[in-house]
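Exam review. A common question shows you a sequence with its structure tokens and asks you to describe the fold in words. Practice with the pair below. Do the first one on your own.
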Amino acid sequence: MVTVGLVLAGLAALLHVYIFWLESVVWTTPRAQRVFGTTPQEAAATRGLAYNQGFYNLFLAVVVVVSIVLVAVGHLAVGAALVLAGTGSMLAAALVLVLSDRSRARAAFSQGTLPALTVLALVLGLLA
């Protein structure tokens, strides 16, 4: 089950790299505006905030990738702790999103599902 958790963590990291790309690289493009439901004016006005937020997502992804590598080279305790910290933070961010704006429930579900499954699988695997 630990392996399943690590695969899910890797997928969560990839998703957060994609979110970084949308927020920090292509925020004002039609594609990002469709994903986030913003107008060109809103995207222009929030570009700096989105740029910053994108890097939070990237840093979470980096933590998760480093933790997977640590587990792979035999540092289970440290790697598992970092996986749980990284994906737990991703999950917490998804919960904050939906609690702050119910209209963002779909986005929160998309953002939080892989991290939630990671936490569940990893904890079950560590307890086994």
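Now try the second one, then compare your answer with the model answer below.
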Amino acid sequence: MYQNDFGWGTPLVVRSGNANKFDGRIYAYQGREREGSIDIELCLAPQSMTALESDQEFLEAVTEL
């Protein structure tokens, strides 16, 4: 996907668009750097995002990465 050039240069990011968006949907794409990298798009409803942002255990685990 990153090799496509429509006259604006190579893409910086790949997104799925508006179709099939629902809470918890995950898309995984080959990463821009290739060589085994991946890009992940996670769709969350506002209330799910709010719950994640206030989950201290989750935030601590993400910080350790």
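Model answer, second protein: Strands lie at 26-30, 38-42. Residues 1-65 form one domain. Full marks require stating both points clearly.
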